[in-house]
Amino acid sequence: MRAGRALRAVLLALAVLTGCTRAEAPPPDPDVIRFASYDFPENQILVEVYAEAARRRGLPVSVQHGIGTREVVSPALQQGVVDVVVDYLGTALSFARPRFPRPPEEPAQMHAVLSRTMGGRGVDVLTPAAAEDQNGFVVTGEFAAAHGVSRLSDLAPLAGDLAFGGPPECPDRPFCLLGLEQVYGLRFGTVTSMPSRAATLEALLSGQVQVGMLETTDARLAVAPVVLLADDRGLQPRENVVPMVRAQVLDRWGEPLRDALDGASARLTTGDLVELNRAVEFDGRTPAEAARAWWDAQ
């Protein structure tokens, strides 16, 4: 039943993206490069960074934000509903090759496998950035001190009595709850689906949950009274930011588009990503405003 609901959700989202109604949807505009983001703020920021790079090369761009999870966006890219997606290397590879027997650990090798896989699906994987963002798991500083917790493995004797908070897709993701169970043996007493990372932090601080998922580049980690637990058994893969483009679109726009996106990757660091997140979360800028300011500073 879950698979059926997921398929219906994907089909519905694709219908919305393409503007399908009972009348036949108009064909996509071949003269606009359609960027699309996942349904969380950092990815919206990243898409704006790469879209702005294309704009500054004089390329026509449109941006669609918050399309959905990878289960929605990846088929949309492969089916030509959108043209450019900004992903994270390890998660993208795991999603594209879920039964890969021995996934590589080094970014260059991961990129090579992902490129071969997606190339067969009509998608080019461009140069990854140095910027990297992994799933992180946090507790409050008070909880860490009271229980002597600093590593994920320290949660093993406590997990059954703890509440976990994270994004709705977390229970089925190999680098979220599924991975915590398989690699660390962590089975939490309760799991609460959180609508946003801000809600996760609020739930932590209020005591609604004791463990929460936040990305390692979340600007709130520097100011909130929380502790990022060490991934001492290496659950998380390398997660370099990487743009993926439909091959037909890259052929259509050629080197100007490739150079624009590769140029963004060449400049973007993990520190930049933290500051971009800070500009949106704390300074009230939109993702587009933060991206433009970052490029102006370049």
From TrEMBL:
Residues 1-25 form the signal peptide. Residues 33-296 form the ABC-type glycine betaine transport system substrate-binding domain. CDD domains: PBP2_ProX_like. Keywords: Signal. PROSITE patterns: PROKAR_LIPOPROTEIN. InterPro entries: ABC_Gly_betaine_transp_sub-bd. This is ABC transporter substrate-binding protein. It comes from Blastococcus carthaginiensis.
